[in-house]
Amino acid sequence: MREVYFIKQNKEKWLGIEQVIQGKIKKNPDDLSSLYINLINDLSFAQSYYPKSNTTVYLNHLSSQIFQKIYKTKRVEENRLVYFFRTEVPLLVYQYRRYLMYAFLFFILFTSIGVLSGIYDKGFANIILGEGYVNETIENIKKGNAVGVYQSGSTWGSTIGIIFNNIGVGAKLYIYGIAGGVGTLYALLSNSVMLGSFQYFFYDYGALKDSARGIWLHGVFEIFAMVLEAMCGLILGASILFPKTFSRFNSFKTGFKDSFKIFLSTIPFTICAGIIEGYVTRHALKMPLVVNLSIIITSLAIIGFYYFVYPSVVYKRTNTNTHDAIL
């Protein structure tokens, strides 16, 4: 069958499914299941005969949307907050997983720019980090206390200030996405270049190991959350720039709703990062190295598993359950 005829034959049905997804047409669970089966058949046909076509991309997107609609109509017996973190967020992360990849690629690129700028311009750290901070840190390094800057102020006062500051940075990374994602990339560029120049600064003064023992105690959660917040900004921007078959406003509503849920999921990690930075990082060089590494590796395992591995596990589990329920 020619693709043009295939589209013409099914166009009205697909537009009707869009109306269901947008909530303009109400369907009971049985009708939703029938729509899903029908759409999966269309997708399978398109993947077989038009694998590189925009039609296949469109049907794949539509299938994921109607799948979520079906799953959300099921009665949720567990606590709403538990459901949010255990099922809803992982499914959204899986759906938008390519944006997580984009965010990490930009993060690596921008951080590398910070490192290279530090290598070729010895005064770059002063510009990015501030002359006062640089001079203070150099003095601390000479005293053998590379993380001395984290030891000032009270623990609880520092913790509260750090948490609010980090949430503010994350909110900017996310909300700036409303400018088509450009604002998010600019905010990510600023923070990533700062991180790159910051780490090279310590390397240049022979204190990279000591700084890493302290900085990455809280940095794993903080930096990973920053990348996730950039991911949310990119989702928001893409929903405006690429509405596909939806109206731009409806696409934005969906993009905002989904990205905001992912953004909210980063808040606990941001809070944990603030607590670690306020209470633990100041003692970094007094700890046995094995304790530092244990905290860093455990933090990386937790957040890495939740956003990289667990979404796939949840998607496969719910997909199997939904198909069993349909059959």
From TrEMBL:
* Keywords annotated in UniProt: Membrane, Transmembrane, Transmembrane helix
Q: Matching InterPro entries, A to Z?
A: SpoIIM-like
Q: Which Pfam families match?
A: SpoIIM
The portions of this protein that span the membrane are 99-120, 173-203, 215-242, 262-280, 289-309
* Name of the protein in its database record: Stage II sporulation protein M
Q: Which organism is it from?
A: Chryseobacterium kwangjuense
